[in-house]
Amino acid sequence: MTDQTPWCCTGRVSECPLCPQYGTSLLDPCPGHPVNDNTQTAIDTARLHAEQRHPDYEYATTTGPRKQWDDADVPPYGDNGEPDTTWQHNLDAGYPGAGWERFDYTEEAYWRRPKTAAVAPAATEATDIETTARVFAGMHSSAEQTVNRVIDLSERWVQEGPPPLGVPLARWWDKRLAELHAAIKPSAPDGGPTVAEAAQADRNWDLQKGGE
């Protein structure tokens, strides 16, 4: 650096966080920027990112072979095994404005993302858990109603006693099975009469036949 080097960078627009050309390949000299609260904050933020210690961000590093790395621009992989696009190049780390650095045998690419971006999947997971809980609660409620209907049916059977004289035993059992089916699955899928209604009609028919 010389006395003419701007306070904000090493002298090139591609390496200056305050220049629009930051992160490009342009080698034009940085014209310099005024020192005020906004520019100082931008420089301080860039320094925190360069040191990977900004409190509102998390950081990651990917590594590949020196000068033979085809995936240098591929972000870190997520839990689903796919590149996680919530990660963005950390241009402030490594070579300023580049977001990577080359070593004797390897290269490293640097990434960052706001911590809120990492919380999003957890929020989605919580929503999925709540949805699953509501589904199981509905299933439990439906099962409890079914059990209550079966209990009521069994109590009615006890009160009715054995089949009346003159009623074929097979037909009596058919009615019992129809009533049990109605208690377990009360609605007919085609919009016709329920099994309970059909069983009651069958019972009425038997009563009429017994009175003849």
The portion of residues assigned to helices is 40-55%
Q: How far do the termini sit from each other?
A: 117 Å
Encode the helix/strand succession as letters.
Answer: HEEEEHHH
Strand content: 5-15%
Determine the mean pLDDT.
81
Number of helices: 4
Largest sheet: 4 strands, antiparallel
How much is the radius of gyration in Å?
Answer: 38 Å
Assembly context of the chains: single chain
Uncertain spans = none
**Morphology call:** rod-shaped
Structural class category: alpha+beta
Q: How many β-strands, per DSSP?
A: 4
Q: Characteristics of this structure?
A:
212 residues; alpha+beta; four-stranded antiparallel beta sheet
Structure notes:
- With 212 residues, this protein is of the alpha+beta class.
- The protein has a domain at 120-211.
- Helices cover 44% and strands 11% of the residues.
- The protein contains four helices and four strands.
- It has helices at 37-50, 115-160, 169-184, 195-211; strands at 57-65, 88-89, 100-102, 106-114.
- Strands 1, 2, 3 and 4 form a four-stranded antiparallel β-sheet that branches.
- α2 runs antiparallel to α3 (169-184) and α3 runs antiparallel to α4.
- The longest helix is centred in the middle third of the chain and has 46 residues, at 115-160.
- The model has no long low-confidence stretch (mean pLDDT 81).
Structure at a glance:
This protein has 212 residues and is an alpha+beta fold. The chain has a domain at 120-211.
Q: Secondary structure elements and their pairing?
A:
Layout: H1 37-50, E1 57-65, E2 88-89, E3 100-102, E4 106-114, H2 115-160, H3 169-184, H4 195-211
Antiparallel strand pairs: 1-4, 2-4, 3-4
Helix pairs in contact: 2-3, 3-4
